[in-house]
Amino acid sequence: MQIKENYLLKKLNTFGIQAIAKYFVELNSIQEIQEIIKSSHFKNNPYLLLGGGSNILFTKDFDGIVLKINNKGKEIIAVDADNVFLKVQAGEVWESFVDYCILNNWSGIENLALIPGNVGTSPVQNIGAYGVEVKDCIEKVEVLRIADGEIIELNNNECKFGYRNSIFKQEAKNKYIILSVTFKFSKKPTLITHYGDILKELENMFVTPSLENISNAIKNIRRCKLPDYTLTGNAGSFFKNPTVSKEKYEALLIEYPKIRAFPSGNDYKLAAGWLIEKSGWKGKSLGNAAIHHKQALVLINKGNATGNEILALAKAVQHAVLNLFGVELEMEVNVV
Ligand SMILES: Cc1cc2nc3c(=O)[nH]c(=O)nc-3n(C[C@H](O)[C@H](O)[C@H](O)COP(=O)(O)OP(=O)(O)OC[C@H]3O[C@@H](n4cnc5c(N)ncnc54)[C@H](O)[C@@H]3O)c2cc1C
Question: Does the predicted model carry a pTM greater than 0.90?
């Protein structure tokens, strides 16, 4: 374990923002994580946990220690007639893990293919896509409690999962380091094909639904719709889809009959991309930051954007949507 000084973070965040960490350390085991929290570097400095850097926006250099969580390993801990239970270390790469499950014919996360980031970060915002949220496959999350160094387990309920939300983004933020996640997968696949263009893409591919085919269809759709972050810096959807009351939705519907929304309990969730597009920002730039021309929810780095340029654009979009629709857009990305 080596603590590095003045470490460049540009290649460690998918926005490709130039930022420097005063201290940086890569932690390859739980033992190293336990060791670092006892160190003076950790005790005397602010700290930041970093996985794949795909849901983070650096607006300044980080004047503290960045802990890159990199512990690897996958272990089957139980199998029954219908399910397999897997304990997966936080530093495993999510995309490879999805492919590994498909290869073994374990079902549950195939619709979450091609989402960047680490397994250990998947519970933080309860990643979701194409009709699936990771919370539905999570049994428990193993964490290190920073206050006393104890390793404890939180069950699914204790994680307080919600739409792009969990205890790790709320009251437990900066209190726990996620060490591993235990998943429950089905050995008898339940295929979810009703969402978005999955069926259409399967048809285009001349294949029938299977775990592998669904995942490949989703990969195709995502590659077509989203910019490749290795070429154009971005963090996927920058904003959450806002939830409004039935009354607010009905009022908006009178004024905007084509508004895109879907029921969510007693409320309605509005498609944030539609709101941004209608407020005139799709494809527009502010300095070196822009709204992607195909997907208005995605903010991109046109080359040399600073985090503050991206943030200024995000705020301009929030302002425009609030002015036009009276709806507040909440950022999904973690701003540092
Ligand atoms: C092109 C693209 C497409 C995307 N598509 C989707 C999508 O479809 N659905 C979706 O939900 N998300 C999507 N995302 C967002 C992102 O991939 C996910 O949120 C992912 O889970 C973030 O993982 P990460 O390891 O990169 O997290 P990071 O960005 O490294 O960290 C995210 C947050 O978690 C904290 N954190 C990191 N590690 C730990 C740990 N071990 N313990 C506790 N806290 C920790 C960090 O401090 C930070 O606050 C997309 C991003 C991109 C770039």
Answer: yes
By residue range, what is the domain housing residue 45? 4-69
Give pLDDT, residue 111.
97
Residue 80, pLDDT > 90, answer yes
Domain end residue (candidates: 164, 186, 208) = 186
> What gap in Å lies between CA 119 and CA 178, rounded to an integer?
10
CATH number of the domain at 25, please: 3.30.43.10
Q: Which of 34, 49, 234 to mutate to test the pocket of ligand 1 (most atoms within 8 A of CB)?
A: 49
Q: How many domains does the chain have?
A: 3
- Residues 141-153 pLDDT 10s: 999 999 999 999 9
Residue to probe by mutation, ligand 1, list 48, 55, 130, 229, most atoms within 8 Å of CB: 55
Residue 121: the pLDDT is 98
Atom nearest to 122 CA in ligand 1: 21
Where is the domain boundary, 14, 42, 69?
Answer: 69
Closest residue by Cα to atom 1, ligand 1, is: 236
Q: Between the CA of residue 116 and those of 57, 153, 196, what are the distances in Å?
A: 15, 25, 20
